[in-house]
Amino acid sequence: MEELGRARPDEVRRRCRSGELSGATTGLSLGYVQANLVVLPAEAAAEFHEFCLANPQALPLIEVTGPGDPEPRQAAPGADLRTDLPRYRVYRHGVLDAEPTDVRDVWPHDGVAFLLGCSFTAEARLLAAGVRLRHQESGRNVPMFVTSRPCTPVGRFHGPLVVSMRPIASDSVETARRVTAALPRAHGAPVHVGDPSILGIDDLARPDFGDPIEPEPGETPMFWACGVTPQAVIRTTRPPLAITHAPGHMFVTDLRDDAE
Asked: Checking phi first, is residue 24 left (phi over 0); if not, alpha (psi -120 to 50) or beta?
């Protein structure tokens, strides 16, 4: 899928819709904003919106759709959030029920979709700055970990922060920090650098989501807030129905990353 690194977002979405693309979106449409997805029934949407605003680094809002409307009219006019991601997750009462590639049959009639920023958006800038990203080189997803750090609770919504980890050459750590700090819609600067136990992470070889990519000699683990955080919150708060992206399988928007 190397050619999709230069592909327009609408081409990536077309391939998702047709079923040609069902894998992780790291490295795709470099230079465009990628987004995490959360869909909830309207009765929970206002409270979840407030939860996002209370936790802006973990849940940076890009767009909120109207009830029942699957079109992200600001981020990608004409797209369909029910079909245009490579893979979804369907949760019922906080339990993972399915991982389909199309959610038209389960989308709630009053579903409100939240598009939230993703650290994949920062990867084009990191590569341009000379920061090596080994997960891209090896064609793997980033490792993601549930931490011991709680989100700020709002109403029924509460739960732990999830982080993505990238092993970065130690002489590139400050560059990676600077580059990502300039991209708040992509989670901004790392929440932690170094010892994973500070975040309650016991073993970097056993991520909760994604693929294991352990630091090599001369590398430092860097941890960014992650848009899988809502899925940990959903498992904690157990709403009757929630739809999300599968970890690492993002919605590719038409927004340029230089529009931050």
From this structure: beta
